[in-house]
Amino acid sequence: MLLNGIYLKERWLTVSEERLREAIDTLKDSGVRITPQRHAVLEYLLNAMVHPTADEIYKALEGKFPNMSVATVYNNLRVLKEIGLVRELTYGDSSSRFDCNTSDHYHIICEACGKIVDFHYPSLDEVESLAEQVTGFDVSHHRLEVYGKCDGCQKLPAQKH
Ligand SMILES: [Zn+2]
Ligand SMILES: [Zn+2]
Predict the structure, then answer these.
(1) Does the keyword Glycoprotein apply (predicted)?
(2) Which ligand places an atom closest to the C-alpha of 154?
(3) 16 and 86: one domain?
(4) Which of 11, 80, 103, 115 has the CB geometry, 3.0–4.6 Å to 86, for a possible disulfide?
(5) Distance, CA 52 to ligand 1 centroid (Å)?
(6) Which ligand is nearest to the CA of 116?
(7) Is 81 exposed, middle or buried (0-12, 13-18, 19+ CB in 10 A)?
(8) Which residue range(s) make up the domain with 68?
């Protein structure tokens, strides 16, 4: 049991380390300077496998970089976004979330705690071509979100209002 746990943990670390190495290579290829903070932001995003806000990233890293500000985190995220390593998910309330999984995937969002989880489903390309035909728009992308209550929140006793 214990051995199995250690094995899984090491495997997980290896996978994210490989992704980090690839991401660093992409940074180098783009001629972007790799500062310790930038490295840390990227590493945090890859390891967290969640969709944190800039504030959450800041809070997770401020112990390691006492001189870092939220603005620095935003700046680094903007750079990572520009070279396509990070995707920004805006929700119209200024609390953007950041996703380092840039492969095609959809999101399911918990209405109770706000958690965002990735799931894979064949890309709905026909929606894009239909939208183009019907509206004459030049479609760039689409976003699909599914809402509900996550496993953890379903187990909590119902909130009384
Ligand atoms: Zn939840
Ligand atoms: Zn995602």
Answers:
(1) no
(2) 1
(3) yes
(4) 80
(5) 14
(6) 2
(7) middle
(8) 2-99
